[in-house]
Amino acid sequence: MLENWDKVFETNQVIRAEQVKDLLERNDIQAVVLNKQTSSFVLGYCEVYVPKEVSEAAKTILKNEEA
């Protein structure tokens, strides 16, 4: 599945990953959260992926959101 997707965001907070996904979807960009955290100790990261053809637009949206 991930061969046609690019990672545009990574965090150790599930809620932040979901906020980024919501922001992208409000801008008509399909996004998925891949939770790589362990359930026992909440170690690891959550990653947000978008289709490759819109990854640059997604990165621009995220960059502008940080500013």
List the defining traits of the structure above.
single chain, about 70 residues, alpha+beta, 3-stranded antiparallel sheet, 2 helices, about 25% strand, globular
List the helices and strands and how they pair.
Blueprint lengths: L4 E7 L2 H13 L5 E4 L10 E6 L3 H12 L1
Antiparallel strand pairs: 1-3, 2-3
How would you describe the overall organization of this protein?
By secondary structure, the chain is an alpha+beta fold. The chain contains two helices and three strands, in the order βαββα. Strands 1-3-2 form a three-stranded antiparallel beta sheet, with helices on one face. It is globular and about 35 Å long. The protein starts with a strand and ends with a helix. The model has no long low-confidence stretch (mean pLDDT 91).
Which strand-content bin applies to the residues? 25-35%
Spatial shape: globular
Structural class: alpha+beta
Which range best describes the helical content: under 10%, 10-25%, 25-40%, 40-55%, 55-70% or over 70%?
A: 25-40%
Describe the largest sheet. Answer: 3 strands, antiparallel
H and E string: EHEEH
Could you tell me how far the N terminus lies from the C terminus, measured between alpha carbons in angstroms? 32 Å
Order of the strands making up the biggest sheet: 1-3-2
Uncertain segments of ≥5 residues (pLDDT<50)? Answer: none
Strand segment count: 3
Number of helices: 2
Mean pLDDT: 91
Taking Cα atoms only, what radius of gyration do you get, to the nearest Å?
12 Å
